[in-house]
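Thread amino acids onto this structure.
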C-alpha cells in the first residue's frame, strides 16, 4: 500500500477562510410529495455543487426501513455519484458492517475504487442503521448483539480481503475480492494495488478506542450524539497509535447545519426536520414534512421538549450565524474536519444552504452576479 497516497487521501485541505476542510454527509432525504427519484437527483446536484465549491468529500449514510431516507444502498448511490463527478472524494458514512459479509463489502468498494480511482472512502459502523426487527431481517439472525460484539473480527477480515493478504493456511487464503489487489499480481496484471482507506464511525466510545488503537481515521456522529462528542474524541486521541495509515490522529465530526437567507426561514426548515425525527423516535417514520405541516402540527409538551433538545445541536440561521456556529464547534472539539448534513424538505433549500455556507467561508467557485 502507498502510505503517502493514502495519508493524503485522508487529510483534506481547508479552503477559503474555513478553519478545517468542509465535507458533506447525505442522507438522501425524501420530502412529502417527492419521490426517491427526486431525492437521488438532488444528491447528484448537491455532489456537483460540493465539488465545484471545494468541499473535500461527500459521504452517504446507510439506513433501512425509513421512508424519508433513501440511502439503504450506499455503494449503489456512490457508483451513481461517481459517474456525475470528477474530483470530490466519495464514501460511506457509513456502511454498517454487521449487516453485510466482509467479502461483499470488499467487492463493492473494490468496484467503486475501479470506477473512481483514489477517490473512494470506506467508512464503517457497527450499529444496524435501523430498528431491531429490520436488523434481524438484514442479518438473518435474532442475535443482534453478536454482530456488534464481533465488529473487530469482522473489520480485520474485511481489511484482509481489501489487502488480499490472508496468511497461508487460512480458510480464506485462496479467496480474493475482485476487483482488488490480486489482479495486480496475476500474470499480465496491470491493476493498481491501491484500495480505499478505511474509516471507523461511531456515536460512543467503542469505535473511538478501536480506531485509535488501529491508527485509523475516525468520524464521530455529533449530529445525533452531541453529548458524547468531546469524550469520544478525547478517547480516540488518547488511544491513538501511529500506523502505516496515519502518524497522528485525524477526526471528523458530522454536524447538522442549515443556512437560509433569513433566520426565520432557517427556523421553519429545521422545525420540519425535527418533526420528522419526533415521528421516527416514536415509531412513526415517514417522509420529511413540509414547514407548513410542521407549523400546523400540535406538539405535545414531551415532543416540544425533544425538539428543543434536538434543535439545540442543529446549527441554523443566516450564513454568518451558521459560520459562527461551525467555527465555535470546531474550536471546542478540535475536529480536523467538519462534515455537514443539511436536512430539509426541499431540494432547493438544501442546495441553497450549502451554497450559502460555501460563500460565507469564501470557498472557491462562487457564482458571480450578472449585471
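Threaded sequence (371 positions):
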Amino acid at each position: 500500500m502507498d502510505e503517502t497516497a493514502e495519508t493524503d487521501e485522508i487529510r483534506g485541505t481547508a479552503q477559503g477562510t474555513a478553519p478545517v476542510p468542509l465535507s458533506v454527509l447525505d442522507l438522501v432525504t425524501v420530502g412529502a410529495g417527492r419521490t426517491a427519484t427526486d431525492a437521488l437527483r438532488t444528491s447528484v446536484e448537491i455532489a456537483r455543487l460540493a465539488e465545484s465549491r471545494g468541499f473535500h468529500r461527500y459521504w452517504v449514510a446507510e439506513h433501512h426501513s425509513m421512508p424519508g431516507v433513501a440511502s439503504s444502498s450506499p455503494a449503489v448511490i456512490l457508483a451513481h455519484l461517481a459517474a456525475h463527478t470528477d474530483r470530490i472524494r466519495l464514501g460511506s458514512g457509513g456502511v454498517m458492517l454487521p449487516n453485510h459479509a466482509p467479502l461483499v463489502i470488499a467487492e463493492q468498494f473494490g468496484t467503486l475504487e475501479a470506477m473512481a480511482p483514489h477517490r473512494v472512502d470506506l467508512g464503517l459502523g457497527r450499529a444496524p442503521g435501523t430498528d431491531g426487527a429490520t436488523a434481524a431481517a438484514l442479518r438473518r439472525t435474532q442475535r443482534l448483539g453478536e454482530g456488534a460484539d464481533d465488529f473487530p473480527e469482522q473489520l480485520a477480515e474485511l481489511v484482509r480481503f481489501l489487502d488480499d493478504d490472508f496468511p497461508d493456511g487460512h480458510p480464506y487464503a485462496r479467496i480474493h475480492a475482485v476487483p482488488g489487489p490480486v489482479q495486480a499480481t496475476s500474470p499480465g496484471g496491470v491493476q493498481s494495488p491501491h484500495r480505499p482507506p478505511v474509516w471507523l464511525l461511531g456515536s460512543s466510545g467503542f469505535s473511538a478506542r478501536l480506531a485509535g488503537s488501529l491508527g485509523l481515521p475516525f468520524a464521530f456522529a455529533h449530529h445525533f450524539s452531541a453529548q458524547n462528542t468531546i469524550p469520544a474524541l478525547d478517547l480516540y486521541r488518547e488511544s491513538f497509535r501511529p500506523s502505516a495509515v496515519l502518524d497522528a490522529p485525524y477526526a471528523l465530526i458530522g454536524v447538522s447545519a442549515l443556512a437560509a437567507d433569513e433566520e426565520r426561514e432557517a427556523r421553519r426548515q429545521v422545525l420540519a426536520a425535527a418533526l420528522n425525527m419526533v415521528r421516527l423516535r416514536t415509531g412513526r417514520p415517514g417522509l420529511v414534512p413540509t414547514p407548513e405541516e410542521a407549523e400546523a402540527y400540535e406538539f405535545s409538551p414531551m415532543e416540544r421538549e425533544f425538539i428543543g433538545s434536538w434543535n439545540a445541536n442543529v446549527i441554523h440561521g443566516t450564513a454568518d450565524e451558521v459560520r459562527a456556529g461551525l467555527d465555535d464547534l470546531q474550536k471546542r472539539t478540535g475536529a480536523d474536519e467538519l462534515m455537514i448534513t443539511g436536512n430539509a424538505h426541499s431540494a432547493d433549500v438544501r442546495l441553497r444552504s450549502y451554497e450559502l455556507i460555501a460563500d460565507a467561508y469564501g470557498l472557491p467557485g462562487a457564482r458571480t452576479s450578472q449585471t
